[in-house]
UniProtKB/TrEMBL annotation:
It is an enzyme of class 4 (lyase). Keywords: Amino-acid biosynthesis, Decarboxylase, Lyase, Lysine biosynthesis, Pyridoxal phosphate. The modification N6-(pyridoxal phosphate)lysine is found at K61. This is Diaminopimelate decarboxylase. Its EC number is 4.1.1.20. Substrate binds at R281, R318, Y322, E349, Y378. The gene is lysA. Pyridoxal 5'-phosphate binds at G236, E278, P279, G280, R281, Y378. GO terms for molecular function: diaminopimelate decarboxylase activity. Pathway: Amino-acid biosynthesis; L-lysine biosynthesis via DAP pathway; L-lysine from DL-2,6-diaminopimelate: step 1/1. Pfam families: Orn_Arg_deC_N. It comes from Corticicoccus populi. Homodimer. The lineage of its organism: Bacteria, Bacillati, Bacillota, Bacilli, Bacillales. It catalyses: meso-2,6-diaminopimelate + H(+) = L-lysine + CO2. Its cofactor is pyridoxal 5'-phosphate.
């Protein structure tokens, strides 16, 4: 993704960001379509080089809109969904149901029936109790994976760490739940056991946990003489929000992970399973920026300066929720000195912070534009209407120019379900 100043004006993916914001308004989420495609191809390339059966599935929770899903289809991606809403969006965009996987720790009967009726590729079973539920709702054979909890601790924020033993997700290898699930599936009327899934956590920058998970999984498979066709290693590949972040080394990491997989298959005399991965953030996060307009500026002499923008935690929840750090740039550079300021939103919460102690020009003023980097994942998809804020518009920049893919929410839409 290219972000650079030209004659002191910030250019994103070859477009003048101020001009884009003037056309579509703010807050605005702007994606570089080529960057997303590039990331999808990186995953495809590294796995195809390893000469194994594989597929790359996009975790639609990171950012899913009709326009995004069309790109996934063009790039030969599969898709994982965790709700009827994500599934509906994918189907409406024309995504093939046989490339969609249905996840979730509490799929409702309504969601299961909807997914069955539309013929999703498989369900990822998250609990023993879900097995009977899907079996009772199915009328023909349904492929399933089980989501295991491999009991691997990872170095990330506790809210996005999922592979540890004490988690609401997955069937434990240690307590026997995973084994019980496989047996229950094998005894079921309609469910066909295809393999395993795990997701260790998100924003991981090292591959060692993936290697350790493989060792644990193969040991378990061997101990219980379980055969699998599919091994889904989940997502979680880390990206760069600020210069302190180390991105997951996609090429080197998968080279090592798949070599380990091959070695384990050889050691246990098993065929290499179909490998699946589920990147979300690493496809879209760095592909987008959010553009805000500066409003009120409050200076507390000798203490701090607050620069308020026209969005906030309704479209930028990751800082209030996880303490996530972002880089913030002015859309236009001035000759003025810099100073540290707090960039905050306009919502009624002191925690409505976009960035604390951010270095910005001293003469920043009402009407200036600020650009927050790496907002392409878990921003639009986590946006809310708190304070009756309108969800922002989203545009894609591609070779043909700028394409609006989500309109800004209207005031009418805000109350459309209200009943007087
Ligand atoms: N597969 C499964 C089963 C997942 O639960 C997730 C993310 C992914 C794949 C994709 O992970 P990614 O590659 O995007 O890291 N709202 C949080 C992230 C929650 C992630 C939940 N699961 C955030 O903003 O950081």
């Amino acid at each position: 993704m290219s972000l650079e100043y030209l004659n002191n004006r910030l250019q994103f993916a070859g477009q003048d960001i101020t001009a884009v914001a003037e056309e579509f308004g703010t807050p605005l989420i702007v994606y570089d379509e080529a960057y997303m495609r590039h990331q999808m191809r990186r995953f495809h390339n590294v796995l195809s080089l390893k000469d194994i059966p594989y597929s790359v599935s996009y975790a639609s929770k990171a950012f899913s809109t009709l326009g995004m899903i069309q790109i996934l289809e063009e790039e030969n991606m599969e898709l994982d969904v965790v709700s009827i809403g994500e599934l509906y969006t994918a189907l409406k965009a024309g995504f093939e149901p046989e490339d969609i996987h249905f996840h979730g720790n509490n799929k409702t009967p309504e969601e299961i029936s909807y997914a069955l009726n539309h013929g999703v590729k498989f369900f990822v079973i998250d609990s023993v109790d879900e097995i009977g539920l899907i079996d009772s709702l199915a009328s023909e054979t349904v492929d399933v994976l089980i989501r295991i909890n491999p009991g691997i601790d990872v170095d990330t924020h506790e809210f996005i760490s999922t592979g540890q033993e004490d988690s609401k997700f997955g069937l434990s290898l240690i307590t026997g739940d995973a084994l019980k699930a496989v047996k229950t599936i094998n005894d079921s009327r309609h469910l066909n056991f295809k393999g395993l899934h795990y997701h260790l956590g998100s924003q991981l920058s090292v591959y060692a946990p993936f290697v350790n998970a493989l060792i644990r999984v193969f040991d378990w498979l061997d101990a219980h003489e379980i055969e699998i066709d599919i091994l889904n290693m989940g997502g979680g590949y880390g990206i760069v929000y600020t210069e302190e972040d180390i991105p997951f080394p996609i090429e080197e990491g998968f080279d090592v992970i798949i070599d380990k997989l091959k070695q384990l298959c050889e050691q246990y005399e098993r065929p290499v399973p179909h490998v699946m991965i589920e990147p979300g953030r690493s496809i879209t996060a760095e592909a987008a920026v959010t553009v805000y307009k500066v409003g009120t500026i409050k200076t507390i002499p000798g203490v701090s300066k607050y620069v308020s923008v026209d969005g906030g935690m309704s479209d930028h929840i990751r800082t209030p929720l996880y303490g996530a750090e972002y880089e913030i740039l002015p859309a236009e550079l001035t000759d003025d000195e810099n100073q540290e300021v707090h960039v905050v939103g306009k919502l009624c919460e002191s925690g409505d912070i976009i960035g604390k102690n951010k270095v910005l020009p001293k003469n920043i003023k009402r009407g200036d534009l600020l650009v927050v980097k790496s907002t392409g994942a878990y921003h639009y998809s986590m946006a809310s209407n708190y304070n009756q804020m309108l969800k922002p518009a989203v545009v894609f920049i591609n070779e043909e120019g700028i394409k609006e893919v989500v309109k800004r929410q209207s005031l009418e839409q805000l109350i459309q379900n209200d009943i007087l």
